[in-house]
Amino acid sequence: MNARITFAVARRVLIQLRRDRRTLAMLIVLPCVIMTLLWWMFTDRPGPGFSALAPALLALIPFIVMFLVTSVTTLRERTSGTLERLLAMPMGKGDFLLGYAIAFGVVAAIQSALAVAVSTWFLDLNVAGPVWVLMVVAVADAVLGSALGLFVSAFAQTEFQAVQFMPALVIPQILLCGLFVHRDELPGFLHGVSDVLPLSYAVDAMNAVTGSTDPAVLGDLSVIVGFALAALVLGALTLRRRTA
């Protein structure tokens, strides 16, 4: 891989996103809107409704949004022939994927920082640990979504097929990550499945930051980063120039 080529790819993607104002608005504003809506739903209800759900959603929303946008965008590059033209130049698949990961990582950082800032400063989400740690975990979750989106785009031939990976790969993780039932209370088999799903560690990390200053959050964060790197490597191995 070549650093100059990688950053050139990242710059190109960021320029494209800047020109696509609707997609950019969805990426940046949508998580904040969803968190505000959740707070509004529970504002007049007794109990810690918002504080109980907000940490998990701060992990899930960036992951889901970045997964969808990245998988569809990468597939569009391949089906339009852009990827084939790019790879005909002195650029490897690793340069392409890492450039995309950097570009969407920048967007993910902005997206997650705004969502966390709105939740903690304006929606009164209680955070026991430092707010910047919460932002780091949220960014890692969004980057994981981007990495998995890059990976699954290699197995889709149309944008509709790319979206179909959402119920196949993402919804089971949402069900088993501890959002609806605490993972310790899941049946034995389902608990074992949740232990190998990255979103479980994303939610655990968020709950650790908001509930305590438990240093175990570093272990969860390392698992998230490991999954993201593995997805990028597998994406580089399976990426095709064009859809057959």
TrEMBL record:
Q: Which InterPro entries match?
A: ABC-2_transporter_component (IPR051449), ABC2_TM (IPR013525), ABC2_TM_bact-type (IPR047817), ABC_2_transport (IPR000412)
The UniProt keywords, alphabetically, are: Antibiotic resistance, Cell membrane, Membrane, Transmembrane, Transmembrane helix, Transport
Domain called ABC transmembrane type-2: residue spans: 22-242
Domain of life from the UniProt record: Bacteria
Which Gene Ontology molecular-function terms are recorded? ABC-type transporter activity
Chief location category: membrane
One GO BP annotation is: response to antibiotic
What does the record say about its membrane topology?
A: Multi-pass membrane protein
An annotated GO cellular component of this protein is:
ATP-binding cassette (ABC) transporter complex
Q: Family per UniProt? A: Belongs to the ABC-2 integral membrane protein family.
PANTHER family with a match to the protein in the record? MEMBRANE COMPONENT OF ABC TRANSPORTER YHHJ-RELATED (PTHR30294), TRANSPORT PERMEASE PROTEIN (PTHR30294:SF38)
Which protein, by its recorded name, is this?
Transport permease protein
